[in-house]
Automatic annotation (TrEMBL):
This is 3-dehydroquinate dehydratase. It catalyses: 3-dehydroquinate = 3-dehydroshikimate + H2O. InterPro entries: Aldolase_TIM, DHquinase_I, Type-I_3-dehydroquinase. Involved in the third step of the chorismate pathway, which leads to the biosynthesis of aromatic amino acids. Catalyzes the cis-dehydration of 3-dehydroquinate (DHQ) and introduces the first double bond of the aromatic ring to yield 3-dehydroshikimate. The keyword rRNA-binding does not apply. The gene is aroD. It comes from the Bacteria. Homodimer. The lineage of its organism: Bacteria, Bacillati, Bacillota, Bacilli, Lactobacillales. It comes from Secundilactobacillus similis DSM 23365 = JCM 2765.
Length: 231
């Protein structure tokens, strides 16, 4: 479940809604938040979130505009923000963009794992869906970084793109140790958000309010469909 508030009050309010929902975890999308420049306030808000969420794990995501986020973020700012969060909070996981500098990613992964924080290595293909072979290669290369989970998202233009993602996720899951999150965005890809267990996708994202990626369903819709498919 995404938290997309632009100020502290909105963020705290959305966290309360997530606690009252059937979500299994929360994701704070920092790129929506207007207070990134004030590190002390950001840390305080993060710690407040973990208190409110209780046993619900909190993922921190700072998404660049090139990856579907709300702002452009330099490598230096990216590293500084994540380093501050890792050293001063108790979040469950952070999302790291695969396209970032390899040395930067290695340093953040080492720091996160030293703090017992899981890392999600993510890649969002918004412009054009890769071929099935390219997606398998991407996931295999992402796995080499040593993160805990791999996330691959595409924007399909036809049903073959969706099937290619499903096949790639299943194929790659036989080659890498990490669980894979595979999502096709938009109406064509909605099936990948609720049938991931069929092709070894480990996690799906839903929403209470506005979607943070095209094609997201509400948490209630997602839970209902997942429960039906599980029986």
């Amino acid at each position: 479940m995404p938290i997309t508030g632009t100020d502290v009050n909105q963020v705290i309010g959305q966290a309360g809604e997530i606690v009252s929902s059937s979500a299994d975890l929360a994701e704070w999308r920092l790129d929506y938040f207007n207070g990134l420049e004030e590190t002390a306030g950001l840390i305080a808000t993060t710690n407040r979130l973990t208190e409110i969420l209780g046993d619900l794990p909190l993922i921190i995501t700072l998404r660049d505009r090139t990856q579907g986020g709300k702002r452009q973020i330099s490598d230096s700012d990216y590293q500084q923000l994540y380093t501050a969060i890792l050293r001063n909070t108790n979040v469950a996981a952070i999302d790291l963009e695969w396209q970032r500098d390899a040395t930067l990613l290695s340093q953040l992964i080492d720091l996160a794992h030293g703090q017992q924080v899981r890392t999600i290595i993510s890649c969002h293909n918004y412009d054009q869906a890769p071929t099935e072979a390219e997606m398998v290669d991407q996931l295999t290369q992402m796995a080499l970084l040593g993160g805990n989970l791999l996330e691959l998202a595409i924007t399909p233009t036809n049903a073959n793109d969706v099937l290619g993602l499903m096949n790639a996720a299943h194929d790659a899951s036989q080659r890498v140790e990490q669980p894979i999150i595979a999502t096709a965005m938009g109406p064509l890809g909605t099936v990948t958000r609720v049938a991931g267990q069929t092709f070894n996708s480990a996690l799906t994202f839903a929403t209470i309010r506005s979607e943070t990626a095209p094609g997201q369903l509400s948490v209630d819709q997602t839970r209902t469909i997942l429960d039906v498919l599980a029986h």
